[in-house]
Amino acid sequence: GNSGDLDAPVSEAITKGDLVVGAVLSGNRNFEGRVHPLTRANYLASPMLVVAYALAGTLNIDFETEPIGHDSEGKEVFLRELWPSNDEIRKIVSEALTPEMFSDVYGKISKGTDRWNKLQVPEGKQYKWKEESTYIHEPPFFKSVEKDLPKIVDIKEAYCLANLGDSITTDHISPAGNIAKNSPAGRYLIKRGVDVKDFNTYGARRGNDEVMARGTFANVRLINKMVEKPGPQTFYVPTGENKDIYDAAEAYMKDGHSLIVFGGNDYGSGSSRDWAAKGPYLQGVKAVIAQSFERIHRSNLVGMGVLPLVFQSGENADTLKLTGKEQFTIDLNGGDLKVGQKLEVKVNDGRTFTTTVKLNTEVEVAYFKNGGILQYVLRKLAAKNQ
User: pTM here?
Assistant: First the structure.
């Protein structure tokens, strides 16, 4: 789902001219900016057509009537002349792909490689975390878990981290693709001595919560109504300046402020990515208020202890004239919420509006009371082993 870097002059031309450029891919990562941050238009095609478009060097071509290029003698060459027949494909597959390839690999797969077998494995039942590792880091999910249920505190005078519209996908929310040099995650890696060429992708570093938290809402095509241009920024209310979303979240958390997010219809659509819920949780988001949620993402938010709330029918942040620059208070009744309960949200300018709790089962209510499904399961296991 990720391409390599574009040549510097190409990147500079796209950025300088604010150009809409396209890519052709054979996977299903055709979200805006997913294959590469600078490609907005991404089209799906078969692998052979991907090669054909690469040879043509343009999307603006009719393969039926226009040549894909020219041969060494300057004659026009059309796609139909290069396209292999089914017999040709079958012949190549039969020559290149044999049963022995699979039996050889899977016959010794459990033995491991020499490098794997030479790894020094520390003794003990618990994993020994290395603080210097930028790939694997101990996540904070269990650091403050106690035996007894926590008291769910009300959301008081929370700031809005992002005011988003319809069809915000998990690709907009979750860390995905290449890590930009000037992003919070990029600065984090540079500070720890990682060269830009060794950044790798968010997917490769998903075992480091500090990288992934910094990559949440880092999509370059994210449209946050609190700022003028698309990108991973928000309006930081205390100082009146624009900040990278993670940097704003970090500043809010440092000062003890809770956060919420506004969304439109189908919030969290697309692939069901766990980090689309883990990331906002690590950024201090306590609730997401949207018009509607994608089913699995709503469930994942509950699993992380982030409360999903929906506006009343016909209402959203725009109709309620909410910019996201206000502060919001929500009485959570100590976490003792009911399925489908109505909750009043108080705005710091004196206005109020009503939301509906999207905890859909009693089990989800229990998850929320525990602070999330991880804490719920841990307490269950601890009680069972007493």
Answer: 0.85
